């Protein structure tokens, strides 16, 4: 693949793996109240306080999404393949249409299959973050992607940050270009900001730097590939992969020794963005990782990942209210494959058409803006010619004999 063009297929694989991790994370939230404080608590501790946590590190996987999203979105703009007006028009269509589809899907599930609050555990994710009724005003509010939290489609909180970063992208691209030579020190600074943001409880300082690191990777992508090509040792890539993965879940691995709510515990949690960026570098540069991430099943997961991300929470919530969350294992057994199946259908019916519409809208806006600029330029040139003609000295009329 040409270093300056082409699709990074391995990043599609990363997206697919991360989406499955988020699904498993939500299943684990259903299981949590039935593990902690019970005979099964040692098993829960092993699952959450060892590298096994990587299998369902959902919040941390969202950081992977943020780094990845900024990289993929910024690349066409850096390569001059899109105008800003066309980009924004296409981006909003591509973002909002699937979101609206997922909200209608979630609302339909709630209306068709009533949710009894008494069937789930009070105070847990299932009760706190999943609506039991549909309020039209609430539906419209969530459809704007402006609230800080969501209960119809719980995962939309991260799409709000996607929207915010999209609006900030011109600034991010400009800064990334200006700071290109100092990309690594700037990325280190962003890592420090993420740690401080987690300690201070400032979400913007936790999430926006992750997006900016992705933009920096996009700016230095060719250099990163050249750097990776000089590192053919599997041991080097294994160390980078392992280190990044451990940073991603560092706060969980430290919990036997560090209180999660302490300053140190929060600081370790802030390192998840660093781990996420490291895993993206591995996906781009490691030959083994690329082969693994570009296998057909993983690429298929990547293709439907956004759809899976949007539909799985309403499905799991519906099943949990239906079966009772004490049967979390049944919810998982039924809900995970059902989510994959419905995600495939959602992709075909909603997400893929939104891609096509986004491209058409983007091209239309880009063409329209170019036409307006052309007309404005023609008018300006016409006025300039007219002014130049008016300023030419005119022949002095000959005096008449009279």
From TrEMBL:
Residues 9-344 form the Acyltransferase domain. The chain crosses the membrane at residues 12-34, 54-75, 95-113, 157-175, 206-223, 235-254, 266-286, 298-322, 328-350. Residues 374-402 are annotated as: Disordered. One of its GO terms (molecular function) is acyltransferase activity. InterPro entries: Acyl_transf_3_dom, Acyltransferase_3. PANTHER family: ACETYLTRANSFERASE (PTHR23028). This is Peptidoglycan/LPS O-acetylase OafA/YrhL, contains acyltransferase and SGNH-hydrolase domains. It comes from Plantibacter cousiniae.
């Amino acid at each position: 693949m040409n270093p300056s063009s082409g699709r990074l297929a391995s990043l599609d694989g990363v997206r697919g793996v991360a989406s499955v991790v988020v699904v498993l994370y939500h299943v684990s939230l259903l299981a949590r109240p039935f593990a902690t404080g019970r005979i099964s608590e040692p098993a829960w501790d092993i699952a959450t306080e060892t590298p096994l946590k990587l299998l369902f590190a959902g919040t941390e996987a969202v950081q992977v999404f943020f780094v990845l999203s900024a990289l993929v979105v910024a690349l066409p703009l850096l390569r001059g393949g899109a105008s800003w007006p066309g980009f924004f028009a296409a981006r909003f269509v591509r973002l909002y249409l699937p979101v609206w589809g997922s909200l209608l899907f979630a609302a339909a599930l709630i209306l068709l299959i009533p949710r009894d609050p008494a069937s789930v555990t009070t105070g847990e994710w299932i009760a706190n973050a999943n609506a039991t009724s549909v309020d039209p005003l609430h539906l419209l509010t969530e459809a704007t992607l402006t609230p800080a939290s969501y209960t119809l489609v719980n995962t939309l909180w991260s799409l709000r940050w996607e929207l915010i970063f999209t609006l900030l992208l011109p600034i991010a691209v400009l800064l990334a270009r200006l700071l290109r030579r100092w990309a690594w020190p700037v990325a280190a600074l962003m890592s420090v900001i993420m740690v401080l943001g987690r300690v201070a409880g400032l979400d913007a300082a936790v999430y926006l730097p992750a997006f900016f690191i992705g933009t920096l990777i996009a700016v230095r992508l060719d250099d990163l590939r050249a750097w990776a090509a000089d590192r053919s040792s599997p041991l080097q890539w294994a160390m980078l992969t392992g280190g990044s993965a451990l940073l991603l879940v560092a706060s969980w691995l430290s919990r036997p020794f560090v209180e999660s709510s302490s300053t140190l515990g929060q600081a370790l949690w802030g390192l998840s963005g660093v781990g996420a960026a490291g895993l993206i570098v591995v996906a781009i540069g490691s030959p083994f990782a690329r082969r693994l991430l570009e296998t057909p099943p993983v690429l298929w997961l990547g293709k439907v990942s956004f759809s899976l991300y949007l539909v799985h929470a309403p499905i799991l919530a519906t099943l949990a209210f239906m079966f009772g969350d004490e049967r979390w294992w049944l919810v998982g057994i039924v809900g995970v494959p059902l989510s994959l199946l419905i995600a495939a259908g959602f992709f075909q019916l909603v997400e893929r058409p939104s891609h096509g519409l986004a491209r058409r809208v983007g091209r239309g806006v880009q063409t329209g803006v170019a036409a307006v600029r052309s007309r404005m330029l023609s008018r300006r040139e016409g006025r300039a010619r007219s002014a130049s003609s008016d300023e030419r000295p005119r022949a002095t009329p000959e005096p008449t004999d009279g």
